[in-house]
Structures are given as C-alpha cells and as structure tokens.
Amino acid sequence: MVKxxxxxxxxxxxxxxxxxxxxxxxxxxxxxxxxxxxxxxxxTIGVAPVGCAVLAYNYFTCxxxxxxxxxxxxxxxxIKRVCPDSAVFTYQGDGDLASxxxxxxxxxxxxxxxxxxxxxxxxxxxMTGGQMAPTTLxxxxxxxxxxxxxxxxxxxxxxxxxxLATLDGPAYIARVSVHNxxxxxxxxxxxxxxxxxxxxxxxxxxxxxLSTCPTNWGIxxxxxxxxxxxxxxxxxxxxxxxxxxxxxxx
Length: 250
Prior knowledge:
Layout: H1 24-38, E1 44-48, E2 63-66, H2 72-82, E3 87-93, H3 94-100, H4 102-110, E4 116-121, H5 151-154, H6 160-165, E5 170-177, H7 181-199, E6 204-210, H8 214-217, H9 221-235, E7 239-243
Parallel strand pairs: 1-2, 1-3, 3-4, 4-6, 5-6
Antiparallel strand pairs: 5-7
Helix pairs in contact: 1-7, 3-4
C-alpha cells in the first residue's frame, strides 16, 4: 500500500485544545507542511504569545518560545538577531497583534526584521472571552459590543495588512483564508513564500489568515465558514498585498 497522506513531522501527534470548528488546526498543519517541505524543522523557532494559540509549543516539534501578550514580534526580533541562520516565525491572533501588540508589529515591519508573522484574523478575542477586537466587523455582536459594533462610537475595523504594506520594510504581505479547500491551497503557497523570503534575507514577511471562531461567534462551524466567505472577504479582500519581487504593492 502506498502512503499518500501523513502527519507532517513538524506537527506533534497530540490532541489540540481548540474548539470544534476552529480553523487553528488547519493553519498549524499548513505551517508544519511548509517547514517539512523546506527541510528546516531543526532551524525553526516559533513564538506564540497569549491567546488561543498560547499552547502552540505543544503542537509543533520545532523549538518554540512563549511571549507576553502582543510582544511576539519583539521576542522574535531578539531571537532572529541572536540566531540569524534560524527561521523565526510568530503566530498571533487579531486581538493580540492588532490591539495590544500593534506597536510591536508596526515597528518590526518598519525595521524590516527578518521574521515571518502568521496573523490569524477571526475578528474577535477568542481565549479571553469574546470581546470586540480591532478587526471585528461593523454590526458584529461581542461581549463588549452586545448591540453590535457601532462605527460611530467604536470606529472601523483595521486592515492590518494594507496598513503595513504602506511601509518600506515589508518584503511580502498576503491575505488568505482557510474557509474552503481552494483557499487552503492558496494559503499554503503564501506561507511557503513568506518563509522562503525570510530565508533569503529579503525582509519582513506576514501572512494574514482569515479564520473562524464558532464558539464566540455563537454559530455552528458550517455557518462560521459561510460567514468568512459572505462577510469577512468583502471587508478583508484576499490576495498578495505587497511582494517586492513583483513590484509595488497592489
């Protein structure tokens, strides 16, 4: 019998703590597949701060480091400068990266730090209780916006990828999704390119991944996938937003 499918070596064979229907598991696998394909598991160091992925060190077989909430880019910067031959990535949610860690990600990108950021955007604080995040869509109900996000009082969602793409430092910024098979394939390609650019010393790279949170959204996993397609994609359009090898940002 020919084996055509197996667990990536960079992904530990253990159950995860994620809620049913959460797409963190898909994203973990894509990262692990890329690490395997590039043959860099022994030189990869991941950094995960506070959030749903705080236990990521249990799920990847590469070296992992925890960071304070929002501070993963700062920790990753230190690791990469001390170990310049390593492949260093951060794994951050939108509450973490776009709120408490906004300054860290902006300045890491501006300095063109040779790190890769995996930015998981599900438009809500997951682990801490379902509060409104900087990327929460207008009208969406959360524990801190129970009547829906009112843009006249709470402002508009931040498009982090477009904002960072205005800086000179980033080498590659893309927004992808994992709500169906075709987009999962595209997400894998973007993650691989981000790691390849880092390994080639081209500069800061970031892949934003639109994800689901059925538990805090209060809907079923299937409904959550449909919400990504029907509501998140129009506000957060997919594509390669900046690629220094392809010219100016698109």
